[in-house]
Amino acid sequence: MHKYENLQNAYKDAPMASFVKKLKLVGLTGYVGLILYYPPLFLFLSPDVNSLAYISLCLFWLPMTLALKGLFQGNPFTYAWSNFVIMWCYLHGLTALWTFEGNKWFIYLEVLLLTMAFIGNTYFARYRGRELGLALPKIKELKESERKMFEE
C-alpha cells in the first residue's frame, strides 16, 4: 500500500487501491440502501398503523443523511464517524428482530444493509487512512521519539 504525502484534500486526489475501492462500494451500497429503505420501512412496512413514523425517521434516517456528502467524496473521517450513526440504527434493527412477531424479512434486510455499511465503512476508513498517512503512530515509535527528544 502506497502512502500519500500531500494531505491537503488528499482523500480527493490520492490514488486508491482496488480493494479499498471495493470496501468503499460495499459501505456506500449499505449506507445509501438504508437511506432509501428507511422511509418505506417506517411509513408502510411498520406493523403498527398508529405508530408515529416521523419520529422514527427523525431518530434514524435524518442523522444518516448528514454524512452523505463526505461519503460520496471518500473522506475517511466521515466513513469512521458514520459508524456511530449506524450503531444507533443497529439498536433498532436488533431490537425489532427480538421483539417483532410475524414476517421478519424486512427486518433481516435492514440488518443486512446495516452490516454491509458497518463493515465497508470501518475497513474503508482504516485502509484509506493508512494510504493517506492518517494512521496513529505505534507506541514503540512514540517511545523512541520521546527518548530521542529527552536525550538531546
Total discrete domains: 1
Number of helices: 7
Helix-and-strand structural type = mainly alpha
Query: Per DSSP, what share of the residues sits in E-state strands of 2 or more residues?
Result: under 5%
Structural write-up:
By secondary structure, the protein is an all-alpha fold. The chain has one domain. It has 7 helices and no strands. It is elongated. The two termini are about 35 Å apart. The mean pLDDT is about 85.
Q: Layout of helices and strands, plus pairs?
A:
Blueprint: H1 10-13, H2 18-43, H3 53-65, H4 68-73, H5 76-99, H6 105-131, H7 139-151
Helix pairs in contact: 2-3, 2-6, 5-6
Keywords:
elongated, 152 residues, mainly alpha, 0% strand
In short:
The protein is mainly alpha-helical.
